[in-house]
Amino acid sequence: MGPSSTGGTVLLGVASHICAASPGGPRYDATMTPAERSHPDNGIWLCQQCGKLIDSDTKYTVDILHGWRRKSEDATVREIQTGKIVVAAETAPMLEDM
Fold first, then answer.
1. CA within 20 to 30 Å of 16's CA: 7, 48, 49, 57, which one?
2. CA distance to 25, 39, 80, 84, 95, per residue, from 98 (Å)
3. What pLDDT was estimated at residue 95?
């Protein structure tokens, strides 16, 4: 989310499941409980285009998506700690996967 010119917020992404919530969905894992499927650990925040892409191309595995999430969260922690934006080095591996 980010600020808008009207003083509200603008939604800049979508919440996506890493393992699908329903049978037949992308990366569905029948061994997961309903609580595990709906838990925040099974989610990743992406732009609209990437959210659609990961659900239509089977090359985006659970491991890849967990890696993206971990790299993004690590970069965010560093940005908060240092006050410096971390983009190029952290996003490059994710973009190479696309």
1. 7
2. 20, 25, 27, 26, 5
3. 57
Report yes or no: 27 and 62 within 8 Å, Cβ to Cβ. yes
Q: Which two tokens stand for residue 58?
A: 């089977």
What is the pLDDT at residue 32?
98
CA-angle at 59, arms to 12 and 72, nearest 5° = 40
List Cβ neighbours of 81 (8 Å cut-off, separation of 6 or more): none
d(CA 22, CA 97): 25
Q: Tell me: the pLDDT tens digits for 40-78? A: 999 999 999 999 999 999 899 999 999 999 998 998 899
